[in-house]
Amino acid sequence: MNPVYIGERNRGVAPAAPGEFAPLRIGPLLPDVPVVLAPMAGITNPPFRSLCRSFGAGLYVSEMITARALVEGNAKTLRLAGFAPDEKPRSLQLYAVDAHYTGEAVRWLVGEGHVDHIDLNFGCPVRKVTRRGGGAAIPLKRNLLRSIVRAAVCAAEDIPVTIKFRIGVDDRYRTSLDTGRIGEDEGCAAVALHARTAAQLYDGEAEWEAIAELKQAVRSIPVLGNGDIWEAWDALRMLRETGCDGVVVGRGCLGRPWLFRDLADLFAGREPEDPPHFGEVARVMRDHAGRLAEWMGPRFGVRNFRKHATWYTKGFPGSARLRDALIRIETLAELAAILERVDPDERFPPSAMRLPRGKRGGRQKVALPEGYLDELDDATPPAGELAAAAESGG
Question: What distance in Å separates the CA atoms of residue 125 and residue 122, rounded to the nearest whole number?
């Protein structure tokens, strides 16, 4: 890769040497590269997963599905839980707050032959979820967490179960080591840490040191690291600095699905290609929008693509005006017409390599139910009807 396209902190990082990293094994699954697509609500649907898979191998996880809604046969949830006919392996993330619905949902998924891998979300930082005791709040209550994980693993039979979580709700309550150990003790096939607290949301730099600490605490199963994989070189640096067994890629692939091609190259010991010129970016955009239109219908598919359009074009010269037009598109023809106005030979701007995309920064005071911290040994599930946590994959 042209040095201009290597971020400053990654200069001098070399591609993987032969045999440098052990293969990532998640139960019976053995991905060709130690890379997992992070579940992202409204994003990691079948069209996006298939597009990313076209660039490189890995484990591509669905957007988050709510266990209770799945058990109750909610039509929207059942659709979100769908996979493209050619998807293999089929990996689904489940959001659950109690052992009963967790077990029922997993039994249904496994009994229908619907999945090859189940991931449990314990990292959602969304206020309306944590204030009712769900998402990132659950690891505070270790016995509740253990009961949910145990129910999933028991119901999954031979299907591997993994868990994804954060460092903790904030710096006062750092729960990642206990959470990882519980996952290991209860038979999870791997654990994944987003190296930020729920209070951080997506702000600042991820604390990779917490991934290294988790790897030291959890020895018998793979530990995956998540946070700030903006370019493929970041993934190699994370594995080398923390000793983790694989990486989880989230916001870094938004508007950059060729990141998975770069990852495949680096793990194979090859220098990745330079990012595509705008003409190739435009081709990928049309492909992505077309896949969404086919899956959701033209109207909703094109509208869903609007946010992706802003990420694909972010950083290109004149992109503010371009994005202003793209967020108003109603048809695939309009998209094509707008893209034709841009010089196809326009080079990808080096300054755009690490531009944040997706969830914004900023911090929060994590909302918890009244008295939640008073009885942390309590295994009682959160009371009331929990929100589906559709805004976040943690």
Answer: 9
Q: Which structure tokens are listed for 281?
A: 């970016």
Strand 190-194 to 246-249 pairing: unpaired
Count the neighbouring beta carbons within 10 Å of the beta carbon of residue 346.
Answer: 15
Domain assignment of residue 337, given as a range: 278-349
**Cβ neighbour number for residue 338 with a 10 Å cutoff:** 18
| Structure tokens, 3 | 């040095």
One domain, residues 282 and 334 = yes
**pLDDT tens track for 233-252:** 999 999 999 999 999 999 99
Q: Using an 8 Å Cβ cutoff, are 239 and 209 in contact?
A: no
Residues recognised as catalytic: 124
Q: Could you tell me if 74 and 106 lie in one domain?
A: yes
The residue with tokens 């077309």 is: 290
Q: What is the tens place of the pLDDT at every residue in 244-289?
A: 999 999 999 999 999 999 999 999 999 999 999 999 999 999 999 9
CATH classification at residue 341: 1.10.1200.80
Instruction: Give pTM, 2 decimals.
Output: 0.95
Is 178 found in the same domain as 132?
Answer: yes
Please name the residue ranges forming H helices in the chain: 46-53, 67-71, 75-80, 99-111, 127-130, 142-156, 176-185, 208-217, 232-242, 259-267, 278-296, 298-313, 319-326, 332-339
Residue among 162, 168, 125 nearest 36 (CA): 162
- Cα separations in angstroms, 319 against 239, 309, 313, 338: 34, 10, 6, 12
For residue 150, the tally of other CB atoms under 10 A from its CB is 17
